[in-house]
Design brief:
heterotrimer; A alpha/beta (261); B alpha+beta (364); C alpha/beta (303); A: 261 residues; alpha/beta; 6-stranded mixed sheet; 4-stranded antiparallel sheet; 36% helix; globular; B: 364 residues; alpha+beta
Chain lengths: 261, 364, 303
């Protein structure tokens, strides 16, 4: 009798994406376990965004497979599911935090409605309850309750990101994709947001795949790291190992160019 | 005084009579006759036929008279009439290469086989009002000087020259086996190219012109050149079941425009020019050109271009291009809406009541 | 040739449309009835009345009307508003059918923006004229996207709109074309009837058919189908009510038109459903509001 192994949440094998003749990414292999944060790091053009789009099923890969542990179904190849099934996944078990909050929020609808939308989509029909849950989540992302009826278009960038995060987390997803969530924010705002993300990840046991060009973000949030360049995976491993003892010259270059505080 | 759109029957009768009287105008002025409209206002007739989707110059002229010159109203008349006509047979594809050329120009070559034939055009006229035309009786104009050479037929398309060198995408890339029919199936998206072209052919000229103009100004630019514009008669052939072979049942006049646009690399053709296509009844050249630009803009997604401009937005273009639908819906606002408005009044009045409304005041 | 080709108007088929087209529309109607609330695309024909003026309703009526039908046509609840007159005349000309203003005896009722006050029975068909069939249109302008949302019941966004209304106005701020959920699945736009009429659609013994000509969609509510107006548990759907009653017949439960009678802004309220009001007056009911001098209508007079 053996101990049953913990099932990976996501399993990626030999993933490849081409745009006509142009390489998006290839040779991507990894497993992600519940509660883990995987950072995908690289400069622009490295293929990290392409990879994220494939992993989050927004783009179909040219080759290889992406398997996700679908609730009550086990590991399923994402592209063997129907589009309908993928959409359900995106609304319930996944979250996606966009770099630009305008892509992840309804800017002209109140913060409360933004956060409550997934609940309403899942059948919530009591206004007071929905509003209360919105308030609870806005509090968790450290937004003043008084702003619940305000429109995100009147919020600062950092606050918009917080609303986006709350909007995703309200349905208790198991996996959250993040695309440069702190990009475009100034340094102190970034720091606060990262702290928030770190505590949410721990408190909620979230798995996260985060794409960034900023090594400091990965140092703070990611357990494991994948370095990309020109569509190839240059190096991957535990964050501390990769950052403290980089093997590949390119990684060494990246690490050494990070400004020391 | 209590007023509403009541006493409806009589009001409508009276309105019809007033319209008939207005249509006739000053009785001391001779009544318009259909032949004059057909012969001398032929560009209006051409437009009404195309957007009315029915090739019949006499009917179009009648519609223009009935509509008192309102071309959209005339187009509507023709479309409604079209609905009642039985569908007898589909013709064979028209061979525009066999066109009897009245006019043929190409902007991409200085000269080419078949020549540049200016034909009848406003293009190089000076837009000065010619008061001589206001005279009631004019002597007939001098017959135009023509070369002894016969006008070309079987004149190769300019774009074929590019095809021969492999420099332009080949039509096979954009052909379908089954051709859709806009008049027999509802518009659904994504729309096939045949459905799109049918929609564009009967589209409002003003709308297409504005959208085409927008692409030239940067809203979805594609670097267009006029590969060719040709105008003239083309024969219509059908294959009747009883005969089993093709017969020529007559000619229609058409204007065709091929735009040569931004080159691109593709796996089938390598790096090559792309193209846009326009085809209209009669001599509506401006419409044919606008249609070709719009066609090309709507191919943006197919060609892997970023879809960012209104002219590239398929749903936006194809839903709003039909002036019969547009006119109907815009003008329907004239119909009574007082029941819905009553609902709005009631709501607004209630929302504006002071915040501390008591239970008694609340509608229960 | 069958009897349907005998017509009142030279050269046109019975009820204007050719038999092929009617068959096509009837097939769409059958699909619609089989999937309550689902918008079935159909190839709309150009009619002699403009798009936006009822061509969808007209095509539905033309496809199902028979020589023995008794047709009623109303607009804003009234039989003699100009467009209702125009449409009724169209069918009289092209189908030669008998027409009526009596709600109960009509077998086929075509309507714009109202449901008759008198409850319908299972021998009747109500045909609604629809301008915008897609309830998600204002939230999602793309047809490709709204289709998917319906298929997958991704309707969260509809409740977001209602949530926002309550947040900003304290109540749901939609007074007509109020969205409903049909048979527990499809969310449907009932056409611009006032929300006052929504409850009449629920479990109605009559067959309800909806035609949108310009937008090329047909949908249906079969008899005795569940039709629920969207709301929140704690902000339930409510219909409009008036403090006044009808000045002519005294009705307190019908939809009332507001009529301004003079420059001082004095108002009277009168039943929008003209036939309903006349019936009540014939039975001796009267309003309890004095009708001022100079007002063009007296009780008992046909409006």
């Amino acid at each position: 009798m053996s101990l049953s192994a913990i099932q990976p949440l996501m399993q990626v094998e030999a993933l490849e994406k081409w745009y006509g003749q142009q390489l998006g990414c290839r040779n991507v292999n990894f497993e992600l376990y519940p509660g883990e944060v995987l950072g995908i790091v690289g400069e622009s053009g490295s293929g990290k965004s392409t990879l994220l789009n494939c992993l989050s099923a927004q783009m179909e890969p040219s080759a290889g497979s992406i398997r996700f542990d679908v609730r009550e179904q086990g590991l399923r190849d994402l592209f063997s599911l129907s589009e309908a099934q993928r959409r359900v996944l995106m609304r319930s078990e996944w979250g996606f935090v966009h770099q630009n909050p305008r892509n992840g929020l309804r800017m002209r609808v109140s913060a409360g409605a933004n956060v409550g939308e997934r609940l309403m989509g899942l059948g919530a029909r009591n206004y007071a309850d929905i509003r209360q849950q919105s308030l609870t989540w806005l509090e968790k992302v450290e937004i003043d309750a008084a702003r619940v009826d305000d429109l995100p278009i009147h919020f600062s960038g950092g606050m918009q990101q917080r609303v986006q995060i709350a909007r995703n987390l309200v349905s208790q997803p198991r996996l959250v994709f993040m695309d440069e969530p702190t990009g475009g924010l100034d340094v102190s705002v970034q720091a606060r947001l990262l702290d928030l993300l770190r505590s949410l990840v721990t408190d909620l046991g979230l798995s996260v795949i985060i794409v960034t060009h900023d090594l400091a973000v990965t140092r703070l949030l990611a357990h494991r790291l994948m370095v990309m360049r020109g569509g190839e995976v240059i190096e991957q491993g535990l964050t501390d190992q990769v950052l403290d003892d980089p093997q590949h010259p390119y990684t060494q270059l990246l690490v050494s160019s990070v400004l020391q505080p | 005084m209590y007023v509403a759109v009541k006493g409806g029957e009589q009001a409508i009768e009276n309105a019809h009579q007033l319209l008939a009287s207005d249509r006739r105008g000053d009785p001391s002025v001779s009544e318009l006759d259909i032949k004059k409209i057909r012969e001398q206002l032929f560009l209006a007739v051409d437009r009404v036929m195309m957007e009315g989707a029915l090739y019949d110059p006499d009917l179009a002229a009648l519609a223009i008279k009935q509509a008192c010159g309102d071309l959209l109203e005339a187009i509507f008349l023709l479309r409604a009439y079209r609905t009642t006509l039985p569908r007898l047979v589909d013709s064979e594809p028209l061979e525009t290469v066999e066109m009897q050329i009245d006019r043929r120009i190409s902007a991409i070559y200085k000269d080419l086989p078949g020549g540049q034939v200016l034909g009848p055009t406003f293009d190089y006229t000076h837009r000065l009002l010619d008061f001589a035309l206001a005279a009631e009786t004019l002597s007939d104009p001098e017959p135009p000087a023509t070369d002894d050479e016969e006008l070309a037929t079987s004149c190769m398309h300019a774009v074929t020259l590019l095809e021969q060198e492999g420099l332009i995408e080949t039509p096979s890339r954009t052909q379908q086996d089954e051709v859709d029919d806009l008049t027999r199936q509802p518009l659904a998206f994504p729309a096939s190219r045949s459905l799109r072209l049918q929609n564009l052919a009967r589209a409002d000229e003003g709308f297409l012109l504005s959208m085409a103009y927008s692409t030239q100004r940067g809203y979805g630019r594609n670097h267009p050149f006029v590969g060719e514009i040709r105008m003239g008669n083309v024969s219509i052939n059908i294959v009747p079941e009883e005969l089993g072979f093709e017969i020529d049942i007559g000619d229609i006049e058409l204007t065709e425009c091929e735009m040569v646009t931004q080159f691109q690399s593709s796996s089938e053709d390598g790096t090559a020019f792309t193209r846009g296509y326009g085809l209209v009844f009669g001599r509506s050249e401006r419409k044919a050109m606008a249609m070709a630009l719009a066609d090309r803009a709507l191919r943006a997604e197919e060609l892997g271009e970023e879809v960012s401009a209104p002219a590239q937005d398929e749903e936006f273009m194809l839903y709003h291009s039909d002036n019969v639908a547009a006119s109907g819906f815009v003008q329907h606002l004239k119909l009574p809406h007082y029941v819905d408005f009553q609902g709005e009044l009631e709501l607004l009045r209630r929302l504006r009541e002071p915040a501390d409304k008591s239970e008694d005041d609340l509608n229960e | 040739m069958n009897e349907n080709t005998l017509t009142s108007e030279e050269g046109y088929n019975f009820a204007y449309l050719d038999e092929q087209t009617k068959r096509m529309i009837r097939r769409s109607l059958l699909k619609a009835v089989a999937i309550p609330g689902y918008q079935v695309p159909f190839s709309s024909r150009e009619m002699p009345l403009p798009y936006g003026w009822g061509t969808g309703g007209i095509q539905v009526t033309a496809s199902i009307i028979g020589r023995d039908d008794l047709l009623k046509v109303i607009d804003q609840g009234a039989d003699d508003t100009t467009n209702a007159v125009s449409i009724r005349k169209f069918f009289a000309r092209t189908a030669g059918v008998e027409t009526t203003e009596e709600t109960t005896s009509a077998t086929l009722i075509q309507t714009r923006h109202r449901i008759p006050e008198k409850p319908l029975n299972e021998n009747q068909i109500l045909v609604y004229q629809v301008p915008i069939p897609e309830p998600l249109r204002w939230i999602e302008p793309r047809e490709t996207e709204s289709r998917k949302m319906h298929a997958l019941r991704e309707y969260g966004v509809m409740h977001v709109k209602l949530y926002e209304d309550i947040t900003h106005y304290g109540e749901i701020a939609t007074s007509y074309d109020y969205p409903v959920q049909v048979n527990g699945h499809y969310i449907m736009a009932p056409s611009p009837i006032p929300k006052f009429d929504n409850p009449k659609m629920h479990m109605n013994p009559a067959l309800q058919l909806f035609g949108a000509g310009r937008e090329q969609r047909i949908y249906a509510i079969p008899p005795f189908t569940e039709v629920i107006s969207l709301d929140f548990e704690d902000y339930p759907f409510r219909i409009q009510q008036w403090k006044d009653s009808c000045a002519l017949c005294g009705s307190k439960d019908s939809f009332l038109d507001e009529v301004v009678i003079n420059d001082k802004g004095e108002r009277l309220f009168i039943c929008s459903d003209t036939h309903f009001c006349q019936e009540r007056q014939k039975q001796g009911y009267r309003g309890d509001v004095p009708i001022p001098e100079g007002f063009g209508i007296k009780p008992g007079e046909k409006q």
